[in-house]
Amino acid sequence: MKRVKTLPFIVSSQPTKVEIRCCGCKSLINSDQLRLGVWEYKSSSWFHCACFWTNCYYRNHLWGVDGNTLAELVDGFSGIAPSDKSRLLTDASSAPSIGRRKSGSKFEIPYEGSEGDGDYELDDNTFDLTNLVCCSVTKVQTNLHVSIRKYFIPRGRTCAKPTKYGISLNCEQWNKLELQVDDINSAIATTQKTLKDKEKEKDKKDCKDKNKLPGKEEFPDWILFSLSWKRRVGVFASGEEVVVDIREFSEEKTFSESDRGIRLKPDQWKQLQENINNINKSLRKLS
Ligand SMILES: [Zn+2]
Predict the structure, then answer these.
(1) PARP-type domain: which residues (predicted)?
(2) What tens digit of pLDDT does each residue of 120-151 get?
(3) How many domains is the chain partitioned into structurally?
(4) Of 58, 79, 213, 231, whose Cβ has the fewest other Cβ atoms within 10 Å?
(5) Same domain, 160 and 259
(6) Distances 189 to 124, 155, 160 between C-alpha atoms, Å
(7) How far is the CA of 88 from the centre of ligand 1 (A)?
(8) How many Cα neighbours within 13 Å face the side chain of 136?
(9) Could you tell me the distance, in angstroms and rounded to a whole number, from the CA of residue 42 to the centre of ligand 1?
(10) Does some domain include residue 4?
């Protein structure tokens, strides 16, 4: 089902005639004060900026995000004063990590709905890659981005909304990805073969010494493709699947993975390839 896409968060410093009460501290917000809010049940809940980071249920979706992602997730971000923008960026990067709702692997967030039970807020420039991952073409000021992102289903809702987990590619990086699709697919085939060979070897070993405990699993190394100086596409085996990981690597920690990125399962990678023409159509339309 198609719906108009609304961003999950909203920011404003526009004076209002009506009184706005902060959902955090319950006191009034001065009418011209910068306020940060979240859309819930078709209405907005507003907070003082400081109260947002301590009280808003969805605050962790904005923690640690960069300017581009803020613009993608927060309605009105491009319209606020530069000083307010940098304040938001500082707040987002310095927000406390205590109470962050994370579980399992470093790159996974707990979904509040079961997979596939909700609608995505799809517009003409957003493409479903299945299992709560979407690819959307967005324009921030004059810059076009291809954003591949995890979605989540908010409490009590059936419509999925974007999270901060994912990566926003500029056109140059997107073109590089597109040019390397065949090579990436060859890497997937190679990795799959290695994985199968290892399985066979393991089976043989298991027959030989049944009583021996299985050793630590060894997986083939990542095969890397470059999108930019810091951004890589990695192909590697994760469990029994071969995944495609598009990620930014941090400079400080000798190119360790940052959490700005997305790990695509085989079906999602297939969906992305099938949507290449649509994505390029959207890029042309918005440019
Ligand atoms: Zn407040």
Answers:
(1) 22-88
(2) 556 789 899 988 899 999 988 888 999 999 98
(3) 3
(4) 213
(5) no
(6) 32, 40, 33
(7) 16
(8) 24
(9) 21
(10) no
Q: 47 CA distance to ligand 1 centroid (A)?
A: 5
User: pLDDT per residue over 191-212, tens digit each?
Assistant: 999 888 888 887 776 655 544 4
Count Cα neighbours of 84 within 13 Å in the Cβ-side half-sphere.
18
How much distance in Å is there from the Cα of 79 to the middle of ligand 1?
22
For residue 44, how far is its CA from the centre of ligand 1 (angstroms)?
15
In a domain, 57, yes or no: yes
**What are the helix (H) ranges across the chain?**
49-55, 67-73, 82-94, 171-179, 181-208, 266-274, 276-286
Same domain assignment for residues 198 and 151 = no
Per-residue pLDDT for 80 more than 60? Answer: yes
Q: 16 lies in a domain?
A: yes
d(CA 23, ligand 1 centre) in Å: 7
Query: Ligand 1 centroid to 12 CA: how many Å?
Result: 15
Domain residues for the domain of 251 are 175-286
Please tell me the distance between residue 27's alpha carbon and the centre of ligand 1 in angstroms: 6
Q: Are residues 157 and 73 part of one domain?
A: no
Q: Looking at the structure, do residues 182 and 145 belong to the same domain, yes or no? A: no
Q: How far is the CA of 59 from the centre of ligand 1 (A)?
A: 14
